[in-house]
Design goal:
By secondary structure, this protein is an alpha/beta fold. It has five domains: 3-107, Nucleic acid-binding proteins (OB fold (Dihydrolipoamide Acetyltransferase, E2P), Beta Barrel), CATH 2.40.50.140; 138-205, no CATH class; 408-484, Elongation Factor Tu (Ef-tu), domain 3; 506-726, P-loop containing nucleotide triphosphate hydrolases (Rossmann fold, 3-Layer(aba) Sandwich), CATH 3.40.50.300; 734-910, Rossmann fold, CATH 3.40.50. The strands form six sheets. Strands 1, 2, 3, 4, 5, 6, 7, 8, 9 and 10 form a ten-stranded mixed β-sheet that branches. A hairpin with a 2-residue loop joins strand 13 and strand 14 (237-242). Helix 8 (253-268) packs across helix 9 and helix 11 (368-397) runs antiparallel to helix 13. The termini are far apart. Bound molecules: adenosine-5'-triphosphate.
């Protein structure tokens, strides 16, 4: 049976004499996990059956024997503990539990440690930490390693060696160009490594026709709290590739540890792994005359239980340290600093952050304010990471139906076909049931599975098309019937690296200003850039004249995009190299489109480059997208000669973009970016301009902490004079904008022109307000619906909205000119099922940045006000400022009147 619960007190570790001699034991007071379906407390689950304590709240004692006391030493009250294959014992009339010879003890099982982390940790805990903090740089050994792995995968999928090498080297043209490598030299290098693999594979094939291979497999273990991607699995056992040499008989210890991690993962998937294989690709190319030793590239070893348990204990060390928020020193394991490549980095990091390190410290420590900042954001980012892990846990904690209801999965798909693509990848097709909604979008990476993403057959796949028919691409075939949101840690990883780069590698002057030790400076610019809008003109002057940074506060429809484009043109005309960035691909493409218009006669089109993936970049901007594949020199020239580079902030943290530098960075949607998220873009430039609106949606984060305030907002508050608010809006009829202006912008927002102020539906061709019922003739109206009192949906509101849409259609409006905003996804689905497809129905978050002729808001509140639309007024600001010509609010007046802001909103809407 499995025992799981929360550590309820101090752990007692001691030695006792037993019939086998002296033994170590640890007694852990445990509060059982409260997850029994009947409301009682189940403390033990699993194959061995279920045991329930009489009194659900009581604590019990779990005894951990011998080596597991090492993990017991890590426990603090409040930590989660799992003991597998425990036995129950009666002690003084009480049921207690103890480890058996088959037990594993897992500390914080829901904290998912990656296999790479465990491998780094066994080498040196500090190496694990440094890797997390500063990321993997763009260097040749790393890129070559990736290439060899890719070729290995291709060989397993039956691709020809030379075809694979040529294609893979070509694909990495840009990276290789940045590293100053030529395609031929790299191909030769990869060939040397790959030949060893090929030779060995062929031997294997001769022995056995059906060898049971599969290439890279994504594995997650809910029991051991480990996840990773095995290079390959052969007859159910892991095969790991190492681009190095090893002339000993045995694999290196750290490599064995890595293979053992995969063995644990595979065992959880139902395998029984007793062997591990390491492939050292340099072994065959060594000059046989000079080297002696075991030249065989493949080294097998027996996967003993002792090693597997040792690996779990290593994993426990990482989990416990992370839960306690500690930083490793290198003393935790037997690190040998004198042989370490990272010794210098380690010393600098520990010196600057004042950390204890076995390697020692060099350099001056950061000022206190910066240390405090580092600690605060490090904690915040790690909290965010744990939230990502919680998302993973939902993969097994929630049923398929629950995940579908949460919009985290598309289930019950009808599998159609799997088709091999050129280059060894696969195309998968499935049909989805009508009306199914989810967070998934085209271009997303998802877990595509046969119905069970954790224990079943599952692969990381990319959504190529998402209509009634779904098209995916993946490395391996899957008979896909279910898609799950893939909780990626990439964003979290990049936040940490961006913060590290800002604090440890960043410019001192920048830090002086951002830490309030110096005021931002501006050059006086007199040139008039925009002659019909003073605030926009001043914003461009500030942006151009900023020595450090400028802030452009742009309420809805005030011409942010236009102002950004004009500012970048002015910079380009001054000969500067500019980075254009934003949180979403859509905003980057939008701004780029406006910019291209501005740059028409200023620079050649080929000096403007969009960096991003094919699925992220819009079709219109595709011609500007930087191709990564090709001749290294050409690829790199295209990027480095570009005067304007446009990319999302996340892409700014990629290895390729991190090598670039700019005179200025303009960041749109800055109000939606976390502080380290903003750093990813501004780290690359000498000066920066942030454009955004902190009265609209805040940064998208899972945890509630320092990440929820954007750098934009912090700076607007700290340095109001560095900013300009754009105060003329080009979108809304006067009546519509009044409420938002008074409530959110101190009454400063005004229509830019009389035409904007007076726009109504009558201006649209073929539309007449006379046909509309009287209640809808005003640009703002309120429709009182008592509602059906359900929590996340409201059928009555949905029915009324369907009816309103018919009225607008009768008046001549095109369906595509109407948008409906609802607070909950469930209500979005409810409304979608009742209105024609061409009407856009979505949550506020999906509407930010767009506008429509008519907007209908469904408040979905009866009796009380609860839920995302209500908990943050910034959301309602976004909802109310989307329409140009008509706004209809649908909700229960009595409920809305219970809150002062909504009460004022009602007064305005009913006026
Ligand atoms: N100075 C100006 N003169 C004339 N038209 C302008 C000016 N500034 C902006 N516009 C027009 O106003 C409209 C809105 O501008 P833009 O798209 O730049 O707004 P935005 O603030 O980026 O909008 P959003 O709030 O949706 O992000 C566009 O049609 C644009 O051409």
């Amino acid at each position: 049976m499995h025992v799981r619960g929360t550590v309820a007190g101090e752990v007692d570790v001691r030695s006792v004499s037993t019939s086998y001699g002296e033994s170590e034991l640890a007694e852990v007071p445990l509060r059982p996990a409260d997850d029994a379906p009947d409301g009682g407390t189940t403390i033990a689950r699993g194959d061995g059956g279920t045991a329930t304590l009489a009194d659900g709240r009581e604590t019990t004692t779990v005894t951990l024997w011998n080596k597991w006391t090492e993990s017991a030493d890590l426990l603090e009250p409040g930590m989660e503990l799992l003991v597998t294959n425990a036995k129950a014992e009666e002690y003084q009339g009480e049921t207690q539990y103890a480890t058996t010879g088959d037990s594993y003890v897992v500390v914080e099982p829901s904290f998912l440690v990656s296999v790479t982390s465990i491998r780094n940790w066994v080498e040196c805990p500090r190496l694990y930490y440094l890797n997390k903090l500063s990321g993997v740089p763009l260097n040749y050994p790393v890129v070559k390693g990736t290439l060899v792995h890719e070729v290995f995968g291709d060989l397993l999928r039956g691709r020809d060696l030379e075809d694979s090498i040529a294609a893979r080297v070509e694909e990495r043209g840009l990276q290789l160009g940045l590293l100053g490598e030529t395609a031929d030299a790299v191909a030769e290098d990869v060939r040397e490594n790959a030949t060893a693999i090929e030779g060995w594979l062929q031997q294997g094939r001769l022995d056995e026709a059906e060898d049971g291979w599969r290439s890279e497999q994504l594995l997650i273990s809910e029991t051991f709290g480990i996840r990773g991607r095995a290079d390959a699995v052969r007859r159910g056992a892991p095969v790991e590739l190492k681009t190095g040499k090893n002339l000993k008989k045995e694999p290196r210890f750290k490599d064995k540890v890595q293979a053992a991690c995969y063995a644990l993962l595979l065992e959880e998937h139902g395998g029984d792994v007793d062997i591990g294989t390491l492939l050292y690709t340099k072994n065959s190319v060594l000059d046989r005359n000079e080297e002696t030793g075991d030249l065989n590239p493949a080294k097998e070893f027996t996967m003993g239980e002792g090693l597997l348990k040792y690996v779990v204990r290593l994993r426990n060390e990482i989990a416990a340290m992370e839960m306690a928020g500690e930083v490793p020193t290198g003393y935790e394991a037997d690190a040998k600093c004198e042989y370490c490549f990272e010794q210098d980095t380690c010393m600098v990091v520990s010196g600057r952050l004042d950390q204890e390190s076995k390697a020692g410290q060099i350099g001056q420590s950061l000022p206190d304010a910066e240390r405090e900042y580092f600690d605060r954001f490090y904690r915040a980012i790690e909290e965010e990471r744990r939230e990502v892990h919680r998302e993973y846990a939902k993969l097994w904690e929630q049923t398929a139906e629950e995940r579908a209801d949460d919009d985290r999965a598309l289930i019950d798909l009808e599998f159609l076909e799997q088709r091999p693509l050129e280059g060894g990848r696969w195309e998968l097709r499935a049909r989805r049931p009508g009306g199914a909604n989810s967070k998934l979008r085209e271009g997303d990476l998802v877990l595509a599975s046969d119905g069970d993403p954790v224990r079943g057959d599952s692969e990381l796949a990319r959504i190529e098309r998402l209509d009634d028919e779904i098209v995916l691409t993946a490395d391996e075939p899957v008979e896909v019937t279910r898609l799950d949101v893939y909780p990626s840690e990439l964003t979290t990883d990049r936040l940490l690296v961006a913060m590290h780069d800002f604090l440890l590698k960043g410019d001192e002057r920048r830090k002086d200003v951002l830490f309030g030790r110096a005021e931002p400076a501006f050059d006086e610019i007199d040139e008039v850039f925009i002659d019909n809008n003073d605030a926009q003109n001043e914003a461009v002057q500030k942006a151009v004249g900023a020595e450090d940074f400028a802030l452009i506060h742009g309420p809805p429809g005030t011409g942010k995009t236009y102002t950004i484009a004009r500012a970048i043109r002015a910079m380009v005309e001054r000969g500067e190299r500019v980075l254009l960035s934003a949180f979403t691909n859509r905003a980057v493409d939008n701004a780029l489109e406006a910019l291209l218009e501005q740059l028409e006669d200023v620079i050649d089109e080929d000096r403007v480059v969009r960096v991003g993936s094919e699925s992220g970049v819009s079709d219109e901007m595709e011609p500007y997208r930087l191709e990564r594949a090709g001749e290294p020199d050409d690829r790199v020239a295209e990027l480095e000669e570009a005067q304007v580079v446009a990319a999302t902030t996340s892409t700014c943290g990629s290895r390729v973009m991190k090598e670039q530098s700019f005179d200025a960075a303009l960041v749109d949607e800055a109000g939606q970016l976390t502080e380290p998220g903003t750093c990813a873009a501004i780290n690359l430039a000498e000066r920066f301009v942030l454009v955004g609106d902190h009265e609209q949606l805040p940064p998208v984060v899972r945890a509630e902490n320092d990440l929820t305030e954007s750098l934009f907002e912090r700076l607007v508050e700290r340095y109001p004079d560095a900013g300009v608010m754009l105060d003329r809006q080009y979108r809304m009829n006067q009546r519509i904008q009044v409420f938002a202006s008074t409530e959110f912008y101190d009454g400063q927002l005004r229509p830019a022109t009389p035409e904007v102020a007076g726009r109504t539906l009558d201006d649209l061709e073929g539309v007449s307000r006379d046909v509309l019922p009287d209640t809808l003739s005003d640009p703002v109206s309120f429709v009182d619906v008592e509602g059906d009192r359900s929590q996340y949906t409201d059928g009555e509101e949905a029915a009324r909205i369907a009816d309103l849409i018919e009225r607008y259609e009768d008046a001549g409006l095109d369906r595509s000119e109407i948008g409906v905003i609802a607070p909950f996804r469930a209500q979005v689905s409810e409304i979608s099922s009742r209105v024609p497809d061409d009407v856009t129905v979505d949550t506020v978050d999906r509407f930010q940045g767009s506008s429509q002729e008519v907007i209908i808001v469904s408040f979905t509140a009866t009796g009380s006000l609860e839920g995302p639309i209500f908990e943050d007024y910034r959301r309602i600001n976004v909802a109310l400022t989307r329409p140009k010509r008509a706004l209809v609010l649908v909700g229960d007046a009595a409920a809305l009147a219970s809150d002062p802001v909504y009460e004022r909103m009602l007064e305005w809407a009913r006026a």
